[in-house]
Design goal:
The chain has 274 residues and is of the alpha/beta class. The protein is built from nine helices and eight strands. It has two domains: 110 residues, Rossmann fold (3-Layer(aba) Sandwich), CATH 3.40.50; 158 residues, Rossmann fold, CATH 3.40.50. The model has no long low-confidence stretch (mean pLDDT 90).
């Protein structure tokens, strides 16, 4: 694994830079970035300290800065050090400007202001945590999305990821011998999505969890034959109910969430046309 230094310079939290860097680096096998975050830079003194750190550990520099003076200071500093610096959001901002016929406000960190969207995400997170693992079923009609799946099919982390996008998510486990909540019947508003996984993968995940909890692995919970039967029964239920099925075997949480979000958008478009 070839390692290199990656400096992320931002006048806000740096979350955008980190996400872009991870997405780009994922396309390059055999390389690992030692990430250096220089966030909330709002003064020339802070920029001097960041440049000193960049000089100590030379590498690629990515930045999101709206203040012209700070941008110039960073760019000139990197040029003097012989390092490449990239303004990550510039192409996107330029495209928006041309399309909208307007200029950006030039205010740092606006995406983190506590507006209605922000409070919507907070509300969605609260709803999702309160409806994790079938904890509450009396108000499922208020959910945007309901996830179903056997144990250890990533229902909780996927729900939390979607909640960060402002969606209220409930998740309900499929447990052998246990009936589904009656409240699922007749729901019109929520999108119900069923998650499945390959038996081999699920056995591995469950055995790893049992080992971590210092519990015996030779139970029906992690038995290959029992797990295969459990998944097959769950799939039959999904097909009977007509719920869309997403196989999470080779998907990351982000990929699963993206597939669900795509289904949700199509569902919303259909509802809007009705």
């Amino acid at each position: 694994m070839q390692r290199f230094h990656l400096h992320l310079v931002s006048d806000a939290t740096g979350e955008t830079l980190s996400s872009v860097a991870k997405a780009a680096l994922a396309q390059f096998e055999g390389f690992d970035a030692m990430e250096h975050m220089h966030a909330m830079l709002r003064s020339t003194k802070q920029m001097e300290l960041a440049l000193a750190a960049i000089q100590r550990t030379p590498g690629l520099v990515l930045y999101t800065l709206v203040d012209r003076e700070l941008r110039t200071q960073l760019e000139e500093g990197c040029r003097a050090l012989g390092m490449l610096s990239i303004a990550v959001l510039d192409p996107v901002m330029d495209a928006f400007g041309r399309f909208l016929g307007a200029e950006g406000s030039g205010r740092p960190g606006q995406q983190h202001e506590m507006n209605a969207e922000y409070f919507g995400r907070i509300e969605a997170m609260g709803f999702t945590m309160a409806h994790d693992d079938g904890l509450r079923t009396d108000d499922l009609h208020q959910a945007d999305i309901i996830l179903l799946g056997v144990s250890r099919t990533s229902k909780t982390p996927t729900g939390i990821y979607l909640a960060n996008r402002g969606l209220k998510v409930a998740n309900i486990p499929i447990v052998p011998g246990v009936s589904l909540p009656e409240e699922l019947d007749g729901l019109k508003r929520p999108l119900i999505v069923a998650l499945t996984v390959s038996p081999d993968r699920l056995v591995h995940i469950r055995r790893t969890r049992m080992r971590a909890l210092s519990e015996p692995e030779d139970t029906a919970y992690a038995d290959p034959e029992a797990v295969t039967e459990e998944i097959t029964a769950a799939r039959r239920l999904y097909l009977k109910r007509g719920w869309p099925i997403i196989d999470v075997t080779r998907r990351s949480i982000e990929e699963t969430a993206a597939a669900i979000y795509s289904l949700y958008q199509r569902r919303q478009e259909e509802l809007d046309r009705e």
